[in-house]
Design brief:
24% helix
Length: 96
């Protein structure tokens, strides 16, 4: 029997998480959530590396560079239809 893979990742059972937040200009979105600070920090560093690798492209497209930070958030702070954000949101047609 094949394994069913959900379209959205299951949220942790805890009421609070560590969130990687992405800011670009005046807009801030939740990029991803984690149970531990170390997991969130690893994701933040990966995202910063991805943006750094594409920084020349972002400059030629006159896009502001996203800034990533980590904050503790509550489950109630997540938007109802939240989904994880790719490091370079341009994969969805826009940066953030």
């Amino acid at each position: 029997m094949s394994e069913i893979i959900p379209l959205r990742p299951a949220l942790p059972k805890s009421d609070t998480f560590w969130a990687v937040l992405a800011s670009q200009g005046k807009r801030t979105v939740i990029a991803n959530i984690y149970m531990t600070h170390s997991e969130a920090e690893a994701d933040r560093q990966w995202r910063v590396g991805q943006v750094s690798a594409y920084s020349l492209f972002l400059r030629t497209e006159k896009q502001s560079i996203p800034v990533y930070r980590i904050e503790k958030i509550k489950r109630s702070d997540l938007p109802r239809n939240w989904t994880p954000l790719p490091a370079l949101g341009m994969l969805r047609g826009k940066l953030i």
